[in-house]
Amino acid sequence: MKTALVTGGGGFIGAHLVSRLKREGFWVRAVDLKYPDFSETDADDFVIGDLRDQAVCSRVIDRRFDEVYQLAADMGGAGYIFTGEHDADVMHNSATINLNMVDACLKRNIKHVFYSSSACMYPAYNQEDPNNPNCAEDSAYPAAPDSEYGWEKLFSERLYLAFNRNHNMECRVARYHNIFGPQGTWEGGKEKAPAAICRKVAEAQGGGDIEIWGDGNQTRSFLYIDECLEGTTRLLRSPYNGPFNVGSDEMVTINQLVDMVSHIAGKKLHKNHIPGPLGVRGRNSDNRLIAETLGWKPSSPLVKGLEKTYAWVEEQVRRKRGENQPSTK
Q1: Beta partners for 245?
Q2: Under 8 Å between Cβ of 201 and 261
Q3: Which secondary structure element, helix H or strand E, spans residue 175, and what is its range?
């Protein structure tokens, strides 16, 4: 039986990845600071541990796993990443995890290691025009990410690819673009835009207001979790190092995203634009390279993923309110 290790296995993407690998017949070990928030883990072995500690990494990586997925990081949505209040923690914590992980994998002669980078590493100067962002993989340099989170991601990309060159490893790197879906963080400050908007719409009364940071004309693309996992496993099992974009190329404004969720909910809402952390003005996944190289790219429409995500978030909102029955539209 093949074996896999998923770090960050208590997080949104990690928990879904564990379930997928189990369906594929893997024996799976997961590790995180916590168990998944919204479901029981499907992992055969779940280790509660801090990967900033070298001893924990050595204990977790006690064998030669067939596949290692390094998803563990200190991260969150715009309200966590772009305020500047968490920069030191984000850089120190994530860099320490990656340094420990690649060293522990090397010692066990593990070849196939996947590292989840982020579109936040792309230069801010290429993302000033919301209608024409440049996020092709070869646009990464000269480097100028708009956040310390992005700088750490860029450093760690280079770390894993350097271990490929110097130690004959076969690490693979993907740049994720705004992954979303059910069972993700939906409140508390670390949630990303789709979950945050689904929550705000679910909480709002028809005809009421919904608060949006900025003018709402900033653009993004959002990738549903199932397609993220497909791209992730395809890349790790391919002969290509990357980095590759793993994201949707269906670009929308935040205002359009609000309209889509409002339509799904059957509510008419007024957008109240307020100051808040925004990130770059425009970002969209450029999928030409992954399509040409792997013969695959995400294709599911955004609205399909939003329908599933809104239904799940609405259920969480009702549970928090103590409501047991579906809301009437």
Answers
A1: 175
A2: yes
A3: strand 172-176
Q: Does 149 participate in catalysis according to the annotation?
A: yes
Residues for the chain: how many in total? 329
Can you tell me the distance from the alpha carbon of 208 to that of 321, in angstroms, rounded to the nearest whole number?
A: 18
CA distances from 38 to 14, 174, 274, 283, 313 (A): 13, 26, 31, 29, 11
C-beta neighbour count of 84 within 10 angstroms: 10
List 113's β-bridge partners, or say none: 68
How far apart, in whole angstroms, are the C-alpha atoms of residue 261 and residue 145? 30
Domain boundaries 183-221+250-287+301-319, CATH class: alpha beta
Catalytic residue among 80, 115, 149, 176: 149
Residue range 138-193, pLDDT digits in tens = 999 999 998 999 999 999 999 999 999 999 999 999 999 999 999 999 998 889 89
Q: What is the pLDDT of residues 24-73, one digit of tens each?
A: 999 999 999 999 999 999 999 999 999 999 999 999 999 999 999 999 99
DSSP element (H, E) containing 233: helix 225-236
How many other C-beta atoms can be found within 10 angstroms of the C-beta atom of residue 54? 14
Q: If you count DSSP H runs as helices and E runs as strands, how many of each does the chain have, helices first?
A: 10, 13
Domain residue ranges of the chain, discontinuous segments joined by +: 3-179+223-246, 183-221+250-287+301-319
User: What is the CATH architecture of 3-179+223-246?
Assistant: 3-Layer(aba) Sandwich (3.40)
Cα distances from 93 to residues 82, 152, 153, 174, in angstroms, run 17, 10, 12, 20
